[in-house]
Amino acid sequence: MLVLNKLLLVLSVVPMALSYPFFPPTCYSKALRMAQDLTQMAADLKIGYETGHCMAHMPDLYLDIHNACVMYKMRAYISLVEDLRLRRCAYTREVRKLEVTLRQLFIIMGEKCHGDLVFTIYDCAALERPYNRY
């Protein structure tokens, strides 16, 4: 009976350990992760084989969700990506994914996480530099 109890205990603990993290991501952690991914995705598109020629004129995208100017920066970048439709690279899957994910982050930060996010700085020039506070 003792062996059976220990076996049941182990069988109940193992699935909990495998389902780490135990808590679902918060709105803040989701926005932070998406901003990091978008920054990397935009950098990869600028040097990509299929998209490098179209994305070369695009400004670098550095998203810091602690900066109050990030909403303006995202809105401007979304407009620039939408204007790429005149060029062939706008129809690649990667550019479309960048546009859709950037729009999702804009909606999440503007509507879903509105009360959860706190902007600690208001420095629009900081979003032009590659230094991030992650």
Automatic annotation (TrEMBL):
Report keywords, A-Z: Signal
Q: Name one Pfam family in it.
A: CYTL1
From the UniProt record, give one GO term of the biological process aspect. positive regulation of transcription by RNA polymerase II
Concerning InterPro entries, the annotation shows:
CYTL1
- Highest taxon of the source? Eukaryota
User: Any signal peptide, and if so, which residues?
Assistant: 1-19
Does Signal show up as a keyword for this record? Answer: yes
Q: Does the keyword Cell membrane apply?
A: no
| Name this protein carries in UniProt | Cytokine-like protein 1
Q: Which organism is it from?
A: Crenichthys baileyi
